[in-house]
Design brief:
Layout lengths: L1 H33 L1 E2 L8 E7 L5 H9 L7 E7 L6 E5 L2 E5 L1 H4 L2 E5 L2
Antiparallel strand pairs: 1-6, 2-3, 2-6, 3-4, 4-5
Length: about 110
């Protein structure tokens, strides 16, 4: 009887650790989705700008804002150059090319 209780206790302990592990990684993955960047959005997908990385050089930050990458702007990823960089984005009625190095500083959320 004691052996059965010990085994059941062990199973419950393992399940609890597994569930806790699962919850941690689910939360971590959902946090990563919230902070997705434009360079990771698939070609053909649409997204909305959440903001621009605050650690970016102020001149580049200003230029991205001037190009229309402002919070709330709707962006469509149109196509990529033959080697994948730069990519062409449509926003505010025009198309703009950005390299991945620049696009990775634009924080977006996926449109549902």
């Amino acid at each position: 009887m004691n052996h059965a209780k010990a085994s059941l206790s062990h199973v419950i302990s393992v399940l609890t650790r597994t569930q806790a592990h699962s919850l941690f990684f689910t939360r971590a993955n959902s946090r990563a989705d919230v902070n997705a960047t434009l360079d990771r959005v698939a070609t053909g997908a649409e997204t909305t700008v959440e903001g621009i990385d605050s650690n970016l050089d102020p001149a580049i930050h200003r230029r991205l804002l001037d190009l229309g990458f402002t919070p709330g702007s709707h962006i469509e990823v149109l196509r990529a150059a033959p080697l994948g960089d730069p990519r062409i984005y449509r926003l505010a009625g025009y198309e703009v090319a950005l390299r991945a190095q620049q696009a990775r500083h634009i924080i977006v959320r996926e449109d549902s």
